[in-house]
Design brief:
- The protein has 585 residues and is an alpha+beta fold.
- It is built from eleven helices and 29 strands.
- β17 (405-414) and β18 (418-427) form a beta hairpin.
- GO terms for molecular function: aminopeptidase activity; metal ion binding; metalloexopeptidase activity.
- Pfam families: Peptidase_M28.
Length: 585
Amino acid sequence: MRHRTVTAGSALAVFVAATVALSALPATASTGARSSGSPAAANSAALLAAAPTVDVNNVNAHLQQLQTFATNNGGNRATGTAGHTATTTYLQQKLQAAGFTVTTQTCTTCSGSAKNIIADWPGGDTSNTYLFGAHSDGVSAGPGINDDGSGTATLLEAALQLAANNPTMTNHVRFGWWAGEEQGLIGSKFYVNSLTTAQKTAIKAYGTFDMVASTNGGYFVTGTDAIAVKLRAYFTSISVATETSTECCSDDDSFRNAGIASSINSTGASYTKTSAQVTKWGGTAGKAYDSCYHKACDSYPSNINSTSLGRWANAELYAVWNLTTGTSPANDFSVSLSPSAASVTPGASATATVSTATTSGSAQTVALTSSGAPTGVTVSFSPASVTSGGSSTMTVATTTAAAAGSYTITVTGTGSATHTASYTLTVNGTGGGCTGAGQKLGDPGFENTTTSWTASSGVIGANTGDGAPRTGTRDAWLNGYGSTHTDTLSQSVTLPSGCSSYALSFYLKIVTAETTTTSQYDKLTVKVGGTTLQVFSNLNAGAYTLRSYNLAAFAGQTVTLTFTGVEDSGLKTSFVVDDTALTVS
């Protein structure tokens, strides 16, 4: 990114125009600092067309390649160097292999006659072209991974995902990676100057993506063009607030000066984050968005925020998809079970959670049925049909006439497609009885320095204050930091089969500084295996309270009991666990 201060007049004009554009978003849009899956956010998400998703791991793989190019070629990817040439060759090869028509335009005004990479996806009305760009070069001081490897890599992966899905195109899409940006926007100016008047008119909007993974960054969408509008809609749907930026400018200038509606989209460069922005996005106030801006430390992976990297990659593909395609992916879903097995005595029952997810397209109704249950065994679902993304409770009930043995029950979800999941039911023999009864947890009161529990640093100990134990001198204290933090506490345990009672219990104290009576800012999730027993939050604050659960569905299995405490960046909440027990009889 090239730094240039926006004048007061032009900055105000951009801000006002962007505000007008934002006012056109749905009234349900949420731009609050915190979100807990509010109805407003859900309604906004429902307005979005179903674009494919980008796996951030693929974007990171591209960044690793860019880092390697820099490392092997003098430590940078500046225009005119071998590191930059390797970068443009990589882009060209990836895009051509995916089916793009790739033009390598030699920028004769750039250092070393470097190349612009322009990639057109076949199809769509070329008189309505949407152009998405990033600059492929960095500064000579370092590898240029956030500036602008992040924009280069997210845009490349968005293009590759478009090609992989191969939708019907209504409008035309073009991607551009410009040389010489760090020398004064030279590559993008060279490209724009090569266009005829008709070709410029055909480009309905240009969006540049420059630094989209700043480690202390925000979410800046600066412009009122069609691409900027779609980007804002995407971020609204995931409850991430955006702002316009006063940091200026990048290759968007070259297009804007040619009369093409343009925007610059980033997570920020060397300007400092304000306290208000910390409230919105987290991070550190008074610190630069990217403290490695134009420095040798702009390297992979240390100078990349993978969360914002993934969000921007998906925002870019969402904008591409919604502006240029005429089809959405086919509706599809998945089905899974947790737990996927149980052991029961004749006359007893077991339950499992049937989870569904929308894997592409839009959500749909999924009807649940089963097959393979033996005589004396019945399977029911509550509810019997769900909307993909929802779940149902499956109850497997046996009579005293159920024969001993192991049976595979197939759970089938039927919607626009059919998917199955398998459940293994073991019916115990009536003469086997209950063997191995008793207390199954090691060090249930945390009083011993054993290795029974696995925990985050500082969780188990002789805690005092908010974390004071209920009995004895030691307990488990999760969270209570008043900053973004995750603590875990877990123990694996084997439950014998053939017993009549499997009782898990523990005492939980919740102490919070939160004042809300409606929002779950800090949460403790209790799980056995992949099954969530209960989620507690700051709203459940109170003294030590006994919590009890029936784990009969896990008989005959080795499972892991897990407590996971997640605390946000605001006020603190402590989750204190003591006097646990898992008694089998």
